[in-house]
What we know:
With 352 residues, the protein is an alpha+beta fold. It is 54% helix and 20% strand. The radius of gyration is 53 Å and the shape is rod-shaped.
Amino acid sequence: MAAGVTVAFAGAAYVAAAARVVKQYERGVVFRLGRLRPDVRGPGFTMIVPFVDKLRKVNMQIVTLPVPAQEGITRDNVTVRVDAVVYFKVIDAPDAIVRVENYKFAVSQMAQTSLRSIIGKSELDDLLSNREKLNQGLELMIDSPAVEWGVSIDRVEIKDVSLPETMKRSMARQAEADRERRARVINADAELQASKKLAEAAQQMSESPAALQLRLLQTVVAVAAEKNSTLVLPFPVELLRFLERAQGGGGVPQAEVQAQSEVRRLLAQVERLVGQETGVREAGRSEVLQQLLAEVQRLAGVAAPMAQGQVAQAAVESAVESAVAPAVAPVVASAPGQVVGERADGQGLVAQ
């Protein structure tokens, strides 16, 4: 009986040492004396040889692996920090145990290097707006070596793209400028449409003058309804022009009267230049006359722009020259070097 108890105890100890339970989401890989057994233990109860076999369980679930933020320079020379997340699972338990020491660490390192490579090959706009394409490229880069490890990459997602503060401010100014441009285009289009409608309304009102008066009265009523202390009434421009013509007197515009008085003043100044009784030599008379004529033309050019009505520039010059001719006629020969007259700018006219 004692022997039976011993055998039962030994059998219980053997079963306890050999019994293993593999969960539904796991697979068991058996090493016997260090060699890989070809059969993979499925979920449920299983037995191994104690002290000879070694069972290693491999999780077959999808693993979520966060990738630390990687800093890099994009193709358009912008420094960014990008982090991502990798979803993968083991599809071949023996390869995941035999071919790589730690498949989770290997996948993590491969994801970091692939993310740096993607940052260097992409532009900033792609990182911000075209992430779907970058995710696919990143998945292919990680999945190529991971297949040999018995690991399949389910998907890769870029989580966040961190930009420098200066770049954020620049992008904000760019977006603001773009919004302002669109607002100006919309306002300009509205002004164009309004101008067309106003032109049609003006054409319609021109056919009936009473319509314009009714519109004026409606505007006055609308302004008065707001309880304002100031009431603005439009004043016809034609009435102002009529009053201006009436103020000129006798139908002569005020500008012409002012131009005539300016011409008379300039003529008096020219007569003062040539009115001295000093003689001039016959050879030097032509030069003195040329200087006087230049002064006359200058004075006439000053007075001509003031004649805005019927008095033209040619008429002013003709009137000046006709007044100067009698004053120049008495000029006779004089001794060389003698001062004959004085110009308006203070320089003397010298006989040669």
